[in-house]
Specification:
- By secondary structure, this protein is α/β, with parallel strands linked by helices.
- The protein has three domains: 217 residues, P-loop containing nucleotide triphosphate hydrolases (Rossmann fold, 3-Layer(aba) Sandwich); 172 residues, Rossmann fold; 78 residues, no CATH class.
- It has 17 helices and 22 strands.
- The strands form five sheets. A six-stranded mixed β-sheet has the order 6-9-10-3-11-12, sandwiched between helices.
- It starts with a strand and ends with a helix.
Length: 509
């Protein structure tokens, strides 16, 4: 089988950082290649060079039998290379169907064929079993998970792709959506279309990929056939040593008390939430589990004051509160690490230092409002070291860091304000296996000090491993609480499936 891609001695340098150093590998037609490595290994830089976002400093790219040097995404797409980036490049104020065909609208006699576009988009989403309004609602009104599926569908159907690059495509998808994506990838293989699949989830590599290439600190480590390597060997290639699997910690004794920090009672927010009730104990890690679009993120946004509920009550430290904005939540020592770090989290044109300290400026300022630079510098340096944030300097613009390191900066921002409650929406999204274990350990340590944690995650093992209790949400309603030995991946999915079947029976009557 011939190669569709050969990358020969590719190098790229950014100010203060050697991102790639003489990277070489090839991919066959119809092959699914995993590209793995820790945060900052160079994965995203490599695929951005291939897709025309960045230009290489040196080296050669041979694609489909000829040398190419794409200077733009459009130029790369015309060669047959389509990419789904970790940070989605979609247009929030257009509909789903318009986003899928943007730049490639079906045209006849110089006129866009809107009905044809909408019908084709509807079929695409029917094929992946995602039921959303694709023609009327703005994309900005959709969850991150739905937007991720839009990016995937767009990349697959854009022009005549011979190679599709997927950068963390499952990071916001639940188990059902991930299964649908894998079916799509298998269909691509049958059509002899190659896939570069970037992920930090080891199980996905062994389920869907043929081979795996590992990068570390901008260097090529090696390529292995998935059948000839196990999880522990792969981790060792990535980080140089094995990472012990974290087991579930014992519930903190403080969680056994009935001392509640906050409580949501009968919260409704049309049309996303209809009946949400749960409470969070002091020092507890409470997980929210559920399918794509179930309302988990909306619960977090209500609690943090991003949205105002239509009805219901929120209690915090024993008092009924009515937050009009996140400012009030921050004053009450609440922290919120959003799942959309690029658009709602980081401030891209500010430094690492400024991003970490901005949520706690009162602590870092004197009486007349001047920032205490020595204090912000020492605090930032502490978190950079503690979180292993890869940056040449704390003055580096945060937009120049890898996605995983940006996520660490966000966590550091909120943790430096000594919060009473931390809301974590997909806290390990885009985080490599070593950093993930470190962050999960830190989350449990903070809970042990009495800080309450609300954790939302699409990775069921992550919820089971870290949480004291799990609240399952289905279509905007809390349907079950799991604790102790009842907390397992199988129990969560059984609960959701059973409730779904019961709902269907009611509708048929």
């Amino acid at each position: 089988m011939s190669n569709v891609l050969e990358m020969q001695n590719i190098s790229k340098t950014f100010p203060g950082v050697k991102a790639l150093n003489n990277i070489s590998f090839s991919i066959k037609r119809g092959e699914v290649r995993a590209l793995m490595g820790e945060n900052g290994a160079g994965k995203s830089t490599l695929i951005k060079i291939l897709s025309g976002v960045y230009q290489k400093d040196s080296g050669n790219i041979i694609f489909d039998g000829k040398e190419i040097d794409p200077k733009s995404v459009l130029e790369s797409a015309r060669e047959g290379i389509s990419a789904i980036y970790q940070e989605l490049n979609l247009i929030p104020y257009l509909s789903i169907s318009e986003n899928i065909f943007a730049g490639f609208y079906p045209v006849k006699n110089g006129m866009i064929q809107w009905r044809e576009m909408e019908e084709r988009a509807a079929k695409m989403f029917a094929d992946i079993k995602v039921d959303v309004d694709i023609n009327n609602a703005e994309l900005s009104s959709m969850s991150t998970a739905v937007q991720q599926m839009v990016a995937i569908v767009r990349a697959i159907n854009m022009m005549d792709a011979k190679l599709i690059i997927m950068d963390e495509p499952t990071s916001s998808l639940d188990a059902a959506e991930t299964k649908s994506l894998f079916e799509i990838i298998r269909d691509l293989k049958k059509k002899n279309i190659s896939v570069i699949f970037i992920t930090h989830r080891l199980d996905e590599v062994f389920e869907i990929c043929d081979t795996v290439t590992v990068l570390k600190d901008g260097e090529y480590v090696g390529t292995r056939n998935v059948k000839n390597i196990n999880k522990y060997e792969l981790v060792k290639m990535m980080i140089g040593h094995e990472v012990a699997e974290e087991r579930k910690m014992a519930i903190n004794t403080i969680c056994d008390s009935k001392s509640y920090l906050c409580e949501l009672r009968n919260i409704a927010w049309n049309p996303k939430l209809s009946n949400i009730s749960f409470s969070i104990r002091k020092g507890e890690i409470l997980g929210l589990g559920g399918l794509l679009g179930s309302g988990r993120s909306e619960c977090a946004q209500i609690l943090f004051g991003c949205n105002i509920p239509d009805s219901g009550e929120v209690f915090y430290e024993g008092n009924r509160i009515s937050l009009k904005s996140p400012v009030g939540a921050v004053k009450r020592k609440m922290a919120f690490c959003t799942e959309s770090r690029r658009t709602e989290g980081i401030i891209p044109n500010m430094s690492v230092e400024e991003n970490i300290c901005i949520a706690n400026l009162s602590e870092f300022s004197n009486k007349i409002g001047w920032t205490k630079r020595k204090k912000t510098r020492s605090e930032t340096e502490r978190f950079v070291k503690e979180f292993s944030i890869k940056t040449p300097s704390i003055k580096q613009l945060v937009k120049n860091l890898s996605g995983g390191n940006q996520q660490k900066v966000l966590l550091a921002r909120w943790l430096c304000m000594n919060p009473k409650l931390i809301i974590l929406d997909e806290p390990t999204r885009g985080i490599d296996v070593a950093a993930k274990a470190e962050i999960e350990k830190m989350i449990r340590e903070f809970a042990g000090r009495g800080i309450s944690i609300l954790m939302i995650s699409s990775e069921l093992p992550e919820l089971v491993r870290n949480c004291d209790r799990i609240i399952i949400i289905y279509e905007g309603k809390t349907i079950k609480e799991l604790s102790g030995n009842d907390m397992s991946e199988e129990r969560i999915m059984q609960t959701i499936t059973k409730f779904h079947e019961e709902e269907q029976e009611v509708e048929m009557r």
